[in-house]
């Protein structure tokens, strides 16, 4: 059973990719308001852990709940409260940054002011907002994707290498936004190889080793 | 954090607007699908260039060209979702699957209507068929209703195959048998619209009613099934 102050609770969770156990009896509790850094070697299961929390991969065995919703039976309900930024940005390449923000604003029911503010927060100035995503740099795309996460107002942020491709100012801005999001009640789980950068941001670190979760303590 | 909320129809409108805007900007329909369909129709004309045969089979040829080309249009409409993994973002956002399905279907209907308009004009020139005013009204009605069926099945199976391996080959295998009833009904009604083989306009309207039933069934079924089939 998950308690009200828990954002994520996994108990012996198993996720199979084909017949391969990408998560093997993983157990984890993340309290609301925490910023948790997930480290681990490539292929260890970091992304699968994030995708499980986002309800994108089915739970084969064990128990998993997100924000009090059982992922085995209430996946859709949980997803409405979760924002995920994976390796891809989830943008439409033929649309401008502004059109991408407007689309997501319309889909989730955000106001025009919220859309404008999110772009402003991520440093998407007028010229950049009018640029087609296909013509943007990796860092600019990342900023646009993060602006969409702000529009989403998610309660649980799942980020896979969020600093990748960003310049120093962009990285600082992300850290600031994540801290603000947790102050506002959100919970953040970040998978990253940049332990120094993300470690400074995190309140706690865990490591995924061969599909299992190993606690590495408070930061 | 307080969540936003939005209705299925708002999602459908946003998806349809976005898809049509992307198509307008990328011009895949005009630059790739139409030339492909044009080539198919010209090849049909060469292959069946015999006394009267072409006129007799023109309705079937038009709808075959539409069906083959619709595979490209459907694949394209889901390729834009998988190019930067936007489909996952939509799933994670808990967006109404029914809204996504309806939005995709509406965008497909609009694209198919424009596309068929050009193909019908081409068939009048290439296959030398006659179209009266009454026939034109019948044909527009047939196109609209047949497109609803094709678009609904296209959106359903396109979404189902979007995340699957070998989706390029999977889509024709799933979609073509499913829309075979639409092909048959649309072809029969178009024969009446073109007056092929002595068919009258009155004979075409019962097929229109059948297309309306297919459209309603496929649209309703797709709205219910899309979320379940595309969940994994």
Give a quick summary of the entry.
The complex is a heterodimer of chains A (219) and B (232). Chain A is α/β, with parallel strands linked by helices and 219 residues long.
Topology, please?
The complex is a heterodimer of chains A (219) and B (232).
Chain A lengths: L5 E12 L2 E12 L3 E5 L6 H8 L7 E6 L2 E2 L4 H5 L2 E4 L11 H12 L3 H10 L4 H4 L8 H15 L3 E5 L7 H16 L3 E5 L3 H7 L2 E6 L2 E7 L1
Parallel strand pairs in A: 3-8, 3-9, 6-7, 7-8
Antiparallel strand pairs in A: 1-2, 1-4, 4-5, 9-10
Helix pairs in contact in A: 3-4, 3-6, 4-6
Chain B lengths: L7 H19 L1 H20 L5 H30 L3 H7 L4 H30 L6 H29 L5 H12 L1 H15 L6 H29 L3
Helix pairs in contact in B: 1-5, 2-3, 2-5, 3-5, 3-6, 3-8, 5-6, 5-9, 6-7, 6-8, 6-9, 8-9
Largest beta-sheet characterization of chain B: none
Specify the helix fraction band of chain B. Answer: over 70%
Task: Output the number of helix runs of chain B.
Answer: 9
Secondary structural class of chain A: alpha/beta
The CATH topology of the largest domain in chain A, please?
Rossmann fold
Major β-sheet annotation of chain A: 6 strands, mixed
Count of extended strands of chain B: 0
The H/E string of chain B reads: HHHHHHHHH
CATH superfamily of the largest domain in chain A: P-loop containing nucleotide triphosphate hydrolases
Question: Spatial order of the strands in the main sheet of chain A?
Answer: 6-7-8-3-9-10
Mean residue pLDDT of chain A? 89
How would you characterize the overall build of this protein?
- With 219 residues, chain A is α/β, with parallel strands linked by helices.
- Chain A is built from eight helices and ten strands.
- In chain A, strand 9 and strand 10 form a beta hairpin.
- Chain A is globular and about 50 Å long.
- Chain B is mainly alpha-helical.
- Chain B has one domain.
- Chain B is built from nine helices and no strands.
- Chain B is globular.
